[in-house]
TrEMBL record:
InterPro entries: Csp_YhjQ (IPR005560), YHJQ-like (IPR044543). It comes from Streptomyces achromogenes. PANTHER family: CYTOPLASMIC PROTEIN, CYTOPLASMIC PROTEIN-RELATED. Signal peptide: none annotated. It comes from the Bacteria. This is Four-helix bundle copper-binding protein.
Length: 121
């Protein structure tokens, strides 16, 4: 009788990246809610970046948790979405929520870039 191979354990680097992705996803969702309450053209433009970042970070975390062979490619894309979102949020430097979101996006982008590089030889 053959046993199916066990799923490899998540590395600390993957766990850190998953946590950063989920934190970023949560704050992007909170920031979208804040933008909707405030309204205005500037918030609507930022919403696109927030939506892209929110969805990408969630998907990235999901792919790492299930050990998808494409997770390093997704991490590279996620880093790009996070960078774009951080830049969009910094357009409103007086808004504390936007600044918290930009910081979470920068942290996530950094961990995702590290994960994307870890899968390359």
């Amino acid at each position: 009788m053959t046993q199916s191979p066990a799923m490899p354990a998540l590395t600390q680097q993957m766990q850190d990246c998953i946590a950063a992705c989920m934190d970023c996803h949560s704050i992007c969702e909170e920031t979208m809610s804040s933008c909707m309450q405030k309204g205005g053209q500037q918030q609507m433009q930022i919403m696109r970046a927030l939506m892209d970042c929110s969805e990408t970070t969630r998907m990235c975390a999901d792919m790492m948790m299930r050990r998808s062979p494409m997770h390093t490619d997704m991490c590279a894309l996620c880093a790009k979405a996070c960078d774009m979102c951080a830049e969009a949020c910094t357009a409103m430097p007086d808004d504390q929520q936007m600044m918290r979101c930009a910081e979470a996006c920068r942290r996530c982008a950094e961990t995702c870039r590290a994960m994307a590089g870890a899968g390359r030889v």
